[in-house]
Amino acid sequence: MKYCHTSQGLIRQHIGEPKPVLILIKGVFHLKSRIDSPATIVPDATQALQALGKALFASAEQTGIPKRTLFLAYLRASQINGDSVCVDLHSRNALATGESAERLLAVSAWRETQYFNDSERSTLALSEAVTRLNDRVDPVPDEIFNEAARHFDVQALATLIAGISTANLWNRLNVSTRQIVTVSESK
Q1: How far is CA 48 from the centre of its chain?
Q2: C-beta of residue 182 within 8 angstroms of C-beta of residue 36
Q3: pLDDT given at position 4
């Protein structure tokens, strides 16, 4: 075991693991999961969550919600919740659908950019409201809900809300167990 000081604090490096595992002694920087994801430990949870995801994408396709819009909503929730695994996943998935890197880099500051149309802005606002339930007395105010409803029919709106909620569930599983992004050597 080796210790080194960084701008983030004292880090303990475990030697002898396939890749060095860094754990910040003082602070919040960790590069080792506490346990495997609860989704993989709880019997049938992964299959149930994957089935839900499949149903949500099928509903999105049926109602005309672009996949990239879903990924923007999921990315924003994951950014707010500090889930690096889902930030990485949703960014990559969005890129695969043709989303631009410029727009993905601007998601956290979507209000201050011209990159997003009104429908996407309503989705990002809804994603923030559904994610930050404890931040206000009226967590999802009529203004935000009604703006999203102006762009999406009832099934599409239900799909967005269920999708954002599912992204939040994955975020909570990953953040509470400190899941980390696996980076391949080719990256």
Answers
A1: 19
A2: no
A3: 43
Alpha-carbon distance of 116 to 113, in angstroms, equals 7
For 12, phi then psi, to 5°, come to: -100, 125
Nearest to 176, CA basis, from 22, 48, 12, 36: 36
The answer to whether 112 touches 93, Cβ cutoff 8 Å, is no
* Backbone dihedral angles phi then psi of residue 8, each to the nearest 5 degrees: -95, -5
- Amino acid 64 reads G
CA distance readout (Å), 83 to 59, 88, 100, 106, 133? 25, 9, 21, 17, 17
pLDDT value at residue 28: 56
Label each residue of 93-155 as H, E or C: HHHHCCCCHHHHHHHHHHHHCCCCCHHHHHHHHHHHHHHCHHHCCCCCCHHHHHHHHHHCCHH
Mapped onto helix, strand or coil, the DSSP state of residue 12 is strand
Phi, psi of 77 (to 5 degrees): -60, -45
Q: What is the pTM of this model?
A: 0.83
- Asked whether 46 and 39 are in contact (CB, 8 A), the reply is yes
pLDDT interval class at 182 (50, 70, 90) = confident
* Average confidence score pLDDT of the chain: 88
